[in-house]
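Q: Hi! First time doing this. I have a protein sequence and I read that you can turn it into a structure. Is that right? Here it is:
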Amino acid sequence: MEKHSQIPYSSTKSSDSEDAWRSILCHPEDPPIRRGMEKYRQKKVEVLHCGRTISWSSPRATLGRTVKYKKPMTPEINEQKKKIFLGKKYLIIGIVAVVLVGASVGGYFTFKKAKSNNSQPPEKWEEYQNADLKIKLSYPASLSQISLSEEDKTSKVLLRLERKEPQALITFRYEEGLGMLKAAGGSILDKLVESINRQYPTRYPDYNKEKYEELIIGNEKAARFYFTYTGNDQQTKIKQQFTVVVKDTTGYYLAAQAPEAVFDQSASDFEKIAESFKFEQ
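A: Yes, that's right. Below is the predicted 3D structure, encoded as structure tokens:
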């Protein structure tokens, strides 16, 4: 095995040691020289390497690897790093600002669109009047009047309204000569409510009363029923809002119904139609 000469080292002869270390550091890839560095691995020597003064503490740690040197910090380098740091900081602030502005703009247009939808002009309404009975009520123009049959006229139906989409059907009729209902005591309205509760479960298939309430319509006491039943096709569930109003000895009945699946789409119209019912002086 070939023997390699040891690299001389002397703490007193600085020029020789500097030359030896300069040779090692400038040519670290030379295996004989790297082996010679073993001898000085615990020494810390400041040497002049390729025109630059460096500190060397553990040559063994660098064996087989490329030696990297840390350049001394200068004012120019410090200023450059400061600029890089500030640049990154401003970049982050800019990104956050863009995200916030984007969210604000998106929220503004969403609000504007919702406001625009809510500010649509109201639907046109038609008015029904009966001079003989001195009554009137209003209904949306999307509901069309249906011609009354002879049977309807016999049953004293005043008005039939229909809408295809969403489906809705409204019937308005009246009944006179109810004074006799007072004979048994109580009000006419109370007797009509008792009659409805007794007769409707047998009149409507699968009748189910969901709600009952008392209210004022046209400055008169009124009663309202919400119930469901099975339609004539034996399949479709129908939901009806049935309102009863009494003035003197005459009763007025307003039935508004739709398939249960779409009833809520017309519920607001049904409420407004009932509220529009008035008695003329």
